[in-house]
């Protein structure tokens, strides 16, 4: 009995010491990088599968301004866990001109304000428009919208178009797929197509995606199959954005 107690006593002391150490240790939070999150006001932590375009779409800002604000080069590559600033980024890309400054001169003890003339405008040759710019928009599905455009709404910035399950979803214009996945809440399986430096379009609630990120698509090409919204209604959610700002698709689509 004495021998058994002598063996167990050191083990008991060791267990108590270890439990005491563990009890005083802080709990380390685990971040799931598969889901993007706004961990602190004004910033976004990139999740697995997110792209610069999908994050810009989520917050309603222009992807080029988002890249510039975070020193991201023109390949627009981001990585899971990267911290992006989103606060204070204007979605528009309006040209801002500096006002002419006034120069103060002193003549015989008096100040005289002399306005500096504005520099003359130099005519720059406009860049040739891409073939996509000349294309007209095409209805992405052959039905009429069942829900109207509402730009002021935080949850609905496009139109919903009635569909049958599995109907063909078509690219409304030629372009490059910059996002294809289910990571944006409220959109289901979503496709975002970049048509040029100004316009993007999005196709949500898809049952099946037929293209992947990086693919080039043609106007009228089948890119997905229609699915159901969270409410169970079969429809296609369609949006058009210009410089990050939502437009009413009905003003762009053929009558």
Automatic annotation (TrEMBL):
Q: Which organism is it from?
A: Sinobacterium caligoides
Q: Which GO MF terms are attached to this record? A: metalloendopeptidase activity
Which branch of life, at top level? Bacteria
What SUPFAM superfamilies does the record point to? Duplicated hybrid motif
Q: Which UniProt keywords apply?
A: Lipoprotein
The LysM domain sits at 42-86
Q: Which Pfam families match?
A: LysM, Peptidase_M23
Which CDD domains does this entry report, sorted A to Z? LysM, M23_peptidase
Protein name in the entry: Lipoprotein NlpD
Family label: Belongs to the E.coli NlpD/Haemophilus LppB family.
Taxonomy of origin reads: Bacteria, Pseudomonadati, Pseudomonadota, Gammaproteobacteria, Cellvibrionales
Give the GO cellular component terms, alphabetically.
cell division site; cell outer membrane
